[in-house]
Write a structure and sequence with these properties.
Length: 139
């Protein structure tokens, strides 16, 4: 079912000329990205679908690389961002990369439109938060 949902979302994105790629052996993951943003040049994301196709998990690729010596400095900022942006969660992964993730329930009748909106929300939030993150790291 995840494969079917991914293909339905892919068909919607294709019809809307939204660049993306189906990945995975079962083509159940979508990779996409956006460029030309106000504060960041380009952001890439993955959309993962659960087995039943009822949920999507969106995760960015590396959003910001956090130097090891600055991790403690950035945690309060990440906590504040997580409080301010209810749709997304900012997380530092094991490679010291700040990523942004989001989970949502999908309606099969509107899953393409929903996923496109979630992509735009994720990218917009990342773009809006970027100056705050950079200021915290380098100020």
């Amino acid at each position: 079912m995840a494969n079917m949902t991914a293909k339905m979302v892919s068909a919607y994105l294709t019809a809307d000329d939204f660049q993306h790629t189906l990945l995975g052996e079962d083509e159940d993951v979508i990779e996409t990205g956006m460029g030309g943003l106000d504060n960041i040049d380009h952001l890439e994301l993955y959309l993962f679908f659960d087995e039943d196709g009822n949920y999507v998990h969106i995760r960015t690729k590396e959003y910001v690389k956090i130097p090891e010596n600055l991790k403690e400095k950035i945690y309060p900022v990440i906590n504040e961002l997580n409080l301010n942006f209810r749709w997304c969660t900012f997380v530092i992964n094991t490679d010291n990369e700040l990523i942004v993730k989001m989970d949502a329930i999908l309606d099969m009748d509107t899953c393409g439109e929903e996923c496109k909106e979630l992509i735009y929300r994720t990218v917009g939030i990342c773009d809006e938060a970027y100056p705050t993150i950079m200021k915290a790291l380098w100020a």
